Structure formats: structure tokens, C-alpha cells
Amino acid sequence: MKTGALQNAILNSPNFSIIATDELGIIQLFNTGAERMLGYRAAEVVNQRTPSDLHDQSEVEARAQALSAELGTTILPGFEALAYKASRGIEDIYELTYICKDQSRFPAIVSITALRDDSQELIGYLLIGTDNSARKRVESQLKQAMAAAEAANQAKSDFLSGMSHELRTPLSAILGFAQLIETGTPEPTPGQRRGVDQILRAGWYLLELINEILDLAMVESGKMSLSMEPISLAEVMLECQAMIEAQAQKRGISVTFANLDADCFVIADRTRVKQILINLLSNAVKYNREQGFVVVSWSPGHEGRVRISIRDSGPGLSTEQQTQLFQPFNRLGRESHVEEGTGIGLVMTKRLVELMGGRIGVDSAENAGSTFWVELDVSEGVQRSVVPAGGPPLVRPTGEARINTLLYVEDNPANLMLVEDLIERRPDIYLLTARDATRGIELARGAHPDVILMDINLPGISGIKALRMLIDDPLTTHIPVIALSASAMPNDIRHGLAAGFFRYLTKPIKVTEFMETLDLALQHAKMLSHRADGPAR
Fold it and tell me: I need a labelling partner for 281 at 20 to 30 A (CA). Which of 65, 91, 222, 423 fits?
């Protein structure tokens, strides 16, 4: 192709505008593409206009102000703002709106270059522009889609939180009163105990199912937040050993934790690592043979990782079963098995491991047991904590003549009745109750209870707002307030603790946990009282 023909093809292309100016910015060339895009004939602009005349003037002024601030000099709006960088040999591409002859508009991307002669004398500028409307439409559609997705995620999160609360509220009464009957006086008859055992077993299983479904939904919607920090594997394994011990003994399974005399630190979320290990350990115990074994160990992995292995003596998995292992609600044909399960635990475990940047897998063969393994990133240079992971030991008040006062603010009659029945077993505690936060605050100011138990979703003033009012009042600011709520999503708990609750308990009530937390709060209140009554220093 001849050079002249190539130049003509470029200049006459209808797909992009080519505008050339003299050194003052007056248009000297206006190609076919510029005519098509802007609606002017070349004769209407050549020697009559500058490119800035074809742009949105407010945008040209904004560009002049931005360049003045960036370069620390004064740049006048108009063609100078468009050509300033190019005149100094700086490659410049900008986005501005072109205004057509019929006053219609379209976004454009324009590249501007200084033109110089053989002696490097400035003789003009070349502006090459393309219509940016299609990209802007895509960007707008993408923003709208992202906004819609965010709104859908928020709606999903709100729905999950609400569903969690609504399911936990009746379940709290079922499990709470069943625990009261189980440990009540006189003891239940054998027939009653069998019935209560079934209620508790089904209730706790239902709670586990609710928690797993909500956890999985949060991970899938991207709402699960993690607290990544160096954690001690030895400490976490000791905690898991204590938690799995009773389940293993009940089934005659021996569980051995190797390497506990050594230690290794990994970068992970402590709570979620425990959740992962407990789920794998629970499966290893449940799907084992009679008098079988489970061995937990860790060893250095590849690329700065550590591999945690959980080996069992169970029936093992076929190749086909292994391919279906991490599918939701797939129990690998064990739906009719005596062991209860949801088919969610392993899916959730895999999601959590991957969220923490780790890997999970299994080595197994039929009739040869299984080894589930998890790899996490190692953290270097961290010393073992001298404080036990479980915190300070709980101390129950004993032999105290003083009667402690507990104020419970709750609008649900069943929950009120449950706590009243629980406190009847505590002769050292006198219970006051209030059906709403307004009455609860009045009682707190008048009766000066030692501890306050507060629901979150109260009529009128919420538990969070009531807590702030109690903290702001000098008469009640020292009283430890325990949240007891069916709002049990992780974000609910974080929000409650950040607001200032002494502890955050979720419904259904676990009687032992409830009593231990109450004792800890009473101990804290007593310590504050001694400090206040002590001699000035």
C-alpha cells in the first residue's frame, strides 16, 4: 500500500476523530470521523474554533483547576487546559464530554500530542478522539448490578439475622425447660428422662443445623469476617482435646494428640480453626468402628505451611465417595445411618479453610480408614502465650451471707419464666424483672442490682440503647450487663460486645454456661464494690 493511500485512509476513517490545530489551538484539520461524531462540517470549524469550544465548558474549567492544583501553577480554562501537558512533552490522555452541533453530548477519550518541526519548534497539536459511550454504558450497568448485588446481600444478611432470631426464641424455651426438668428435684422418672433426653437431643441437633445453615449462607454471601492472627496449634489442640473427649469416651474411641510437647504458630482465625478441627474430629469419632482410634498430628508442609492430619480407623471412603465429599447436603449414602448429620459440616469446613488461605484434602481407601488434612500458613517468631487460652478460671461465690440482686429485662414470657425457674435454684440471688427497657432502667437506678441481664430486641428502647443509657448514668455505670439474646449472628455478637456488654450469651440458654457467666459477673461486681469501699490511696 502506498504511503499517500494509507494517510488518506487514516484521515478519512469514520471511527475516530482527528483534529489538528496550530500552536494557538485554532483548528486546522477536521477529519471525516470528527464530522461524523460532532455533526459539524470541516468548513464550519477550521480557522474558527478551538477544540475546547467543542467540549463541556464546566469540565474544561474543572480540568484547569485540577491541573493548577497538581502542578502548582495557574492554568487558564480553555484550550490551554487541554494542551498544557502536551506542550511540555508529557503524554496526555483525558476524558471529557464532546458537545455536538445539535447540542447532543457523548463521553470521549482524547489523546493530545504536540506537533513540532525539524528544529523542534512547536507548530501545533494533534487530538485523536474516540466515542466512549459504550464503555460508560457498561460501567453504569456494572455499577447498577453491583448496587443491586449489594442490596441483595444486605437483604440476605438481614433475613438470616431475623431468621436466626425467630428460630432461636422458641428453641430457647424448649431446651431451657428441658434442661430444668432433666436436673430438677425430684428427679424425673425413667420414662420422663427418656422423653427429656429425646427433646434435648433433637433440640440441640436442630440448633446445630440452624447454626451450620446460617454459617454457610454467610460464607457464600461474603459476609463472614475473620480475625487473622498468629495462634498456637498446641493450645488450640489442647482445647479441642477437652471438647472431644466425652464424645470419644462414650463411643469407646481412643483419641491421641501428638506433638503437643512442641508448638507451631499459624496465621488464622482462632475460633474458626477450632470449629474446623472439632468438625473433623467429630466426624472421625462418629464414623469410626467400635473401639477404634483417632490420631491428630501436625508436620511441616510445603511453601511455609503446616499440615494438620486427623487419621481414623473407620471404614474409609471409595474413590466415588471422595469426589462427592464436599458437596452440600450430601451424606455419601449415610442418610439412614444411626448417626445424625446435615451434610453441611464438611462444606463449611472447606469454605473456612479456603477463606483463611489454606487447603484441605483427604487420603482414604475402603476398609483402610481416612486421613483428613488441613494446611495453613506458618507464622514465624511468635512466643507461646503465658495466659491459658480459656482465660481466668471461674470462681463461684461460696458461703456468702449477702443476697445478690439480678435484674432481668425481657419481654418474652417464656424466657422470663425460664430464668425465674433457673434463679430459684440460686438462694444467693434475688431476681427482679422488667418487661421493657424503660422500666428496667428505672429499676436499675432505684434498686442498684449487682448484675443486669438484658435482652436485645425489646419493645421501644432496644437493649443496645438501654445499655448506653446505663453506662452514661453515674448511678448504674458500674453494673455489669450481660446480653441474653436470640440475635446470634457473629456480627450481632461483635456489635454487642463493642457496645459494652460484660458478656454476650445467645439463646437457647445452656444452663452451665449461663450459671458460670452469672457467677463471673457477680464476682466482677463484688470486686468493683471492694475497690469503691476500700481506703483511699
Answer: 222
For residue 308, the SS3 value is: strand
C-alpha closest to that of 346 among 323, 335, 357, 330: 330
Rounded to 10°, the helix 133-182/190-220 angle is: 170
The answer, yes or no, to whether the previous bond of 186 is cis (omega within 30 of 0) is yes
Instruction: Indicate the CATH number of 404-533 among 3.40.50.2300, 3.40.1280.10, 3.30.230.70, 3.50.50.60.
Output: 3.40.50.2300
Overall pTM > 0.70: no
The third-level CATH classification (topology) of the domain covering 3-131 is: Beta-Lactamase (3.30.450)
Distance from CA of residue 278 to its chain's centroid? Answer: 21
Task: List average pLDDT for each run of 10 residues in the chain, which is 537 residues long.
Answer: 68 83 93 91 93 91 89 86 85 89 92 90 92 87 85 71 75 85 82 83 77 71 75 87 85 85 84 88 89 90 86 88 72 50 74 90 88 89 38 37 83 87 89 91 91 92 94 93 88 91 91 92 85 51
Alpha-carbon gap, residue 256 to 242, rounded angstroms: 12
